[in-house]
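Tokens for chain A. Residues wanted.
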């Protein structure tokens, strides 16, 4: 995993700004596990998958518009969205238009939730945009084994999902940092912990430097003021 450097930051940050990391990865690569570890490390986290689960739960904001779009058959007995039933309607090339309709309904709700999280985080010292992209990745066969072990998954469904996602190779190529989740849990977690430590140390060092610069500017301003006062005194 490469270290953080100024030329790898994706937006113009001020010294001391919190690094905002975009965590991504294809299905079965370990995003949920890494997200859990980040929370354990007290890292503020906005989880898009968790947001969708909340939107689909009974009383969630997505339930009514999805019911209107796809009918009662996508509802669970509890009154939420049955993800399995909905998946059958939107997965596969024949259902491409339905998938677009689903995304048009759900994506704005997810984005609104994310914006609310960012707004709240900014008030706590976080920043608005993604600075660094971290990708979780594992060998393709290991990914396939993990996904097919899920209760509601079939080889056909897995293939259909992959066809809609950005290929892992492309994500790796565009990433600033890659976490190899094909290793043991201990080795993978060590990578994440090292990355978080590096982020925190970078920001702390920047803030320390910024504070020193502020004191330097203040001292310079005071010195300039004293020089002016001394000059005026001599003119009297």
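Reply:
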């Amino acid at each position: 995993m490469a270290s953080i450097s100024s030329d790898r930051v994706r937006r113009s940050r001020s010294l001391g700004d919190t690094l905002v990391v975009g965590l991504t990865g294809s299905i079965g690569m370990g995003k949920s596990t890494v997200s859990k570890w980040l929370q354990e490390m007290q890292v503020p986290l906005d989880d898009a998958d968790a947001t969708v689960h909340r939107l689909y739960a009974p009383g969630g904001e997505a339930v009514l518009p999805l019911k209107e779009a796809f009918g009662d058959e996508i509802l669970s007995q509890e009154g939420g969205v049955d993800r399995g039933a909905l998946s059958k309607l939107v997965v596969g090339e024949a259902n491409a238009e339905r998938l677009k309709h689903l995304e048009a309904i759900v994506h704005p709700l997810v984005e609104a939730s994310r914006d609310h999280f960012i707004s709240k985080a900014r008030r706590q010292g976080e920043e608005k945009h993604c600075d660094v992209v971290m990708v979780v990745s594992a060998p393709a066969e290991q990914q396939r084994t993990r996904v097919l072990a899920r209760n509601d998954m079939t080889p056909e469904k897995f293939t259909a999902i992959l066809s809609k996602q950005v290929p892992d190779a492309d994500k790796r190529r565009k990433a600033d940092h890659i976490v190899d989740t094909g290793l043991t849990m201990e080795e993978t977690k060590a990578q994440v912990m090292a990355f978080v430590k590096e982020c925190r140390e970078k920001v702390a060092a920047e803030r320390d430097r910024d504070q020193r610069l502020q004191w330097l500017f203040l001292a310079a301003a005071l010195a300039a003021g004293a020089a002016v006062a001394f000059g005026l005194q001599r003119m009297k």
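The beta strands are 21-24, 132-137, 177-180. Residues 1-7, 125-129 have pLDDT under 50 and may be disordered.
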